[in-house]
Amino acid sequence: MIFKKFFRVLFLLLIVSLAPSVLFSDDIKEADKLYKQLDYKYALEIYEKIMKDSPSKDVAQKIAHCYRFINNTEAAEAWYKKTLEYPEATSDNYRFLAEALKQNGKFDEAAVNYKIWGEKNSIYASEASKQANICIVAKTWTENPDIGALVQNEIGLNSENSDFSPAQFGNDILLVSDRWQKGKKEEDTYGWTGNPYLKIYSANSAKQVNILKGSINKGFHSGPLAVYPSLDTLIFTRAVLPGKKAKIGDVGKQYLLMAVKKDGEWIAKDKLPFNSEGQFSVQHPALSPDGKVLYFASDMPGGFGGMDLYFSEKLPNGSWTQPQNCGSQINTAQDDVFPTVRPDGKFYFASKGHIGMGGLDIFSVVGEKNKFAEVENLRAPLNSPKDDFGILFNADNKTGYLSSNRNGGVGLDDIYRFTTGIKADPKPQQQVFAVNGLVLEKGTNLPIAGLEILLISKNTGTETKVLSDEQGKFGFSLEKETDYIVKGNPLQYFTSQSGEISTKGINQSTIYDIKFELERSKDVFTVKLNNIFYDFNKWNIRRDAYADLNKVSSFMASMPNVRMELTAHTDARGSAAYNQQLSEKRATSALEYLVKEGVAADRLEAIGKGESELLNQCSDGVKCTEAAHQLNRRTEFKIVKVIPVMAMSNLSKRQAD
Fold first, then answer.
1. By the 8 A CB rule, do 93 and 83 touch?
2. For 43-47, 86-90, 107-111, 652-656, which range has the lowest pLDDT when averaged over its residues?
3. What is the pLDDT of residues 211-234, one digit of tens each?
4. Which of 48, 223, 355, 506 has the most crowded CB, counting CB atoms within 10 A?
5. Are 163 and 199 in contact (CB under 8 A)?
């Protein structure tokens, strides 16, 4: 969620007028200019075109940064990896990559890159180690969500763009969105995202969403907001462009304004006196249930770093006291934002500085103003590896809405409804039996991919087949009280590849760890044992068969543990008895050729099949061409026995967690 740097230096009308030339320009200077103006969406399109024609580290890194700024963590991950392929890439790219990986749920890989970042920057070694450890915590929370909580996308409230920070307004909900407005032909767009500016909308119980009328939505970004208990006044965030003297790349500031409803429209009134000089930003207002304490986020001087949370108290005359920092129990060196006070007074906020699961996480804490107890991460499923923020509770303090850009949403940021405190009926734990297997090549210990593994039930004879993956791993689910044989395909690796396991008498979930170490010929996948053919009524080896027989000879030499069957066939012309004798002579002639080439005779067997196994319709009495008859005159080579080299090298079992 982008909540801080909302502005471009140039006025929107100027950008809109330049957009056609910008989008189709491959001028690196134009792209860099847009990048400095924070128009990342427009800059991206040019950088990516340049990268295709003239790839470089600088352009790859700019693309990665752009995707990070617009919060596309998947693309950011890919481009930081590309950036790090360049030897001259700076080490901070490892940190940016780790952050993207963490938000993409790749916690182990994120931890590795945090550590690399720390190793290359000794001054950040402690922080890098801390972040790597947090990845372990995040992984644990993600894999063990609270079964008493349910989170579902509130599809009716969401658009293809961003929708977030719901606020209760009687029976309706107010929300912030940069959705495209229906029926509006020309709409100002924000160069950071390429979407319209943020506006405040209202949604009724039928999920009909309409923009609030009035000056509350004039100008640039409007929202988030807080609602007075009387429902007649709002406090909302308004973004303002930087002044004329601002430098390129300067961002505008956010202010808090009052708005009152008059004749069906919301009219913006004076700014709250927290940022009269525009030297910093104040945003994300939240009111206590009685409306007497205002909380907000600000980067004003004197904080702990990033955006901090502050509070101000309402005086009897309606004015507000000087803001005070909510303290170190809440605020961190990073961004602490989007405060909310539950109807019963419990405090919630979003933070990147506390131990979290990815981007912004939602935290709860008991207390008020600047006196708080220990903060608590809401964990999964209320939080996710992505950004989670802008929470709203209903009056029951158990249900409500939250904002998130987690995977599977309708748009960018979406609003989700949630329920907590669900009582799950205890269910008996189901027993799980499984095989985790690993296939390695003997001698090299390299994983073998694509090997066919068979699981055969000795109880029923049922066969289940899987292929080992790129890491040589395979797996099976097992039934209880069953004996099994696990073996590999002997035509791929010429070793004994079998073992037996049993679930009989096992009373708890068990995982069987199996490792095969297999031996193969270097030519096992390249040698092709072609059939050889004969002239009519002859059994001598033709010259065109020499190459194939030599290939068989080489194959046998490289596979000393293999025995082979040579089966000769004839066509159907002549008597069956004569053809049987002719086929035996043909098989013998092939065997004698191989023995002459050095293959041991005891590894070969010659068999004649006569005309009993024709390959086509050319049987007795059927008129066929000479070519069709020749197809039946052949000798086939078949591996009939593999001498065991080694069996399943390891079998262990362990109790499943």
1. yes
2. 652-656
3. 999 999 988 899 999 999 999 999
4. 223
5. no
pTM above 0.70, yes or no: no
Q: How confident is the model at residue 76 (pLDDT cuts 50, 70, 90)?
A: very high
Residue closest to 405 by CA, chosen among 465, 367, 358? 358
For residue range 109-157, what is the model confidence (pLDDT) as tens digits?
999 999 999 999 988 888 888 899 899 889 989 998 998 999 999 999 9
**What CA–CA distance (Å, rounded) separates 190 from 211?**
18
For residue 229, cis peptide bond before it (omega within 30 degrees of 0): no
Q: State whether the Cα torsion 353-358-359-363 is positive or negative.
A: negative
Work out the percent of the chain whose per-residue pLDDT is above 90: 46
Residue in 272, 301, 385, 297 with CA at minimum distance from that of residue 349: 297
| C-alpha distance from residue 640 to each of 454, 491, 590, 656 (Å) | 19, 10, 17, 40
Q: How confident is the model at residue 400 (pLDDT cuts 50, 70, 90)?
A: very high
Backbone dihedral angles phi then psi of residue 639, each to the nearest 5 degrees: -75, 120
Output the 3-class SS for 153-184.
ECHHHCCCCCEEEEEEECCEEEEEECCCCCCC
pLDDT bin (cut points 50, 70, 90) of residue 544 is low
**Phi, psi (degrees; rounded to nearest 5) at 156:** -65, -20
> Which of helix, strand or coil describes residue 576?
helix
Distance CA 212, CA 216 (A): 8
d(CA 218, CA 240): 11
Q: Where are the beta strands (DSSP E) in 373-472?
A: 376-377, 388-393, 399-404, 414-419, 433-441, 452-457, 463-467
DSSP β-bridge partners for residue 340: 348
**Distance separating alpha carbons of residues 509 and 319, to the nearest angstrom:** 65
Distances (CA, A) of 161 to 68, 193, 197, 358, 409: 17, 10, 11, 21, 10
Select from 631, 173, 190 the least CA-distant residue to 403.
173
